[in-house]
Design brief:
seven-stranded parallel beta sheet, 473 residues, globular, single chain, 15 helices, alpha/beta
Length: 473
């Protein structure tokens, strides 16, 4: 079968793609920026990539006319206040284009929308479902609540809260009920309904066996991690204050935190159905889902994280224009060291960031991340997905990976932190076993120049310490 997979670079898309390929399907991955999607890591001639922007109808001409089914896995939850309008426009454009093809089914992953008092986010998802449902192509909508799995937004937020806060001040929405579902089950449902005619023109809630409050989810997570945690409930905590609480404690963006808090104010409990019996899927409970997630983390087998899809306005125009590091009108800090063991230096370069840290002055990096959060940036809490490997398009603390090649011994990062300018950090090892570390900053006006000179003393110690550690015998 020929399958169109939109949102292929997202959290769900990266999990579903290997399953589709394993089942013998040809998959056309539709992404906004092909430079952020590493098709090579799937090592399959059944995977191809097209580039389109659902908000720009002219780019949808790239969709091939001969396809059997299409997955709609895109959303704008991390965007600003107009995300509902953006989602409606995207869905309408998608429908117009998909009706020109031979597509027999649209599969849409959305949220559970059983409450009449829906948040802006869930109302937007319902609107998208209605638009897709009006298509001539039959729709199968799968409605999920909280998705629990290694790298999922919900899992990482709960993990941040539980592991960092022995005592939590809980707002009243922590008593809201939800029905979490394991990511493994979500992928099984998405795969199981594919071209299953019994599922055409229908919607199903997909869920796990447990109905829990968010407070119970936090405490059960702590139990699984063998941590003693206490939650003190307060009668009032405004949505705005709650959003800032999540934003500063966890790795989430403020827009995502705000939309999550809005969604958490209403119960998200599924309407029972027998889809899991029809598809022969064993439902995984919440505690088992946590155990599976940590098993993947400990084995370094996390396939995707929600942070891969997280983006900033900086990258809106695409990564291609950023790969060529500018030379003129820039401040450059260039350092080099000869090494006896280039293989060790290379491994250190490709293990940088996340739990490994930045090899020198980690507290200064953390302070810079805190300052970034104060100004609405991504901060340093995003970490990295894999301890040894890093791929193009992935987030690495407050950097984005623009180029990554161990064979070429080169790693190029681009700063997503709040800056009065643009910044690149490049590592490469040459044939003569010399490690080059280059920090490039292109200032924006006078403020950018003042910023560079203000941090110059810190750069001297940080960048020297970093390359010395990388080159260390």
């Amino acid at each position: 079968m020929r399958i169109l997979l939109t949102g292929a670079s997202g959290y769900i898309g990266q999990r579903l793609l290997p399953i589709l390929v394993e089942n013998g399907h040809e998959v056309i991955c539709a992404v906004r920026d092909r430079n952020r999607f590493n098709a090579g890591k799937y090592n399959s001639d059944k995977v191809s990539v097209i580039e389109f922007n659902l908000l720009d109808e002219s780019t949808l001409q790239n969709v091939p006319t001969h396809i059997d089914a299409a997955y709609y896995l895109v959303h704008s939850m991390s965007s600003g206040v107009n995300f509902n309008e953006m989602e409606a426009t995207s869905a309408a454009n998608f429908v117009r284009q998909i009706e020109k093809t031979t597509c027999r089914q649209i599969i849409y992953l959305t949220g559970i929308v059983n409450d009449s008092d829906l948040s802006a986010h869930l109302q937007s998802r319902k609107t998208v479902e209605d638009i897709l449902n009006n298509s001539k192509v039959p729709l199968t909508a799968l409605r999920a609540g909280i998705i629990v799995g290694s790298g999922s937004a919900s899992f990482e937020i709960i993990r941040d809260l539980v592991e960092k806060l022995p005592i939590m001040i809980g707002p009243k929405w922590l008593e809201t009920k939800c029905q979490p579902v394991a990511i493994r089950n979500v992928i099984q449902f998405l795969n199981g309904v594919l071209l299953n005619e019994a599922c055409y023109k229908k919607h199903f809630d997909i869920y796990g066996p447990d109905i829990l409050t968010y407070r119970q989810m936090l405490l059960l997570f702590a139990k699984q991690r063998k941590l003693k945690r206490y939650i003190v409930m307060v009668p009032v905590m405004t949505p705005k204050l709650s959003s800032y609480w999540l934003y500063f404690i966890t790795s989430t963006s403020y827009n995502l935190a705000r939309n999550l808090v809005d969604s958490m104010k209403v119960d998200v409990v599924a309407k029972p159905n027998n889809l899991h019996e029809i598809l022969d899927i064993r439902l995984i409970n919440y505690e088992e889902a946590i155990a599976i997630a940590f098993d993947k983390i400990e084995q370094n087998l996390v396939l995707s994280t929600w942070k891969d899809a997280q983006t900033t306005k900086i990258l809106a125009a695409g990564m291609k224009q950023l790969i060529a590091v500018p030379e003129f009108g820039c401040f450059v800090d260039r350092k080099s060291r000869k090494v006896d063991r280039p293989d060790l230096a290379l491994n250190r370069i490709f293990a940088i960031g996340g739990n490994t840290g930045w090899y020198y002055g980690d507290w200064l990096w953390e302070f810079r991340g805190f300052i970034d959060k104060l100004f609405g940036g991504v901060g340093l809490k995003r970490g990295r997905k894999n301890k040894q490997e890093i791929f193009v398009g992935e987030s690495l603390d407050f950097w984005r990976v623009l180029y990554s090649s161990k064979s070429e011994k080169r790693l190029l990062l681009y700063a997503e932190m709040k800056l009065p300018g643009e910044a690149w950090l490049e590592f490469r090892i040459t044939e003569d076993n010399t490690v080059y570390q280059t920090a490039t900053f292109r200032p924006l006006g006078l403020l950018g120049r003042l910023y560079w000179y203000a941090v110059l003393p810190f750069h001297y110690f940080i960048f020297n310490g970093m390359i010395n550690k990388i080159a260390q015998k």
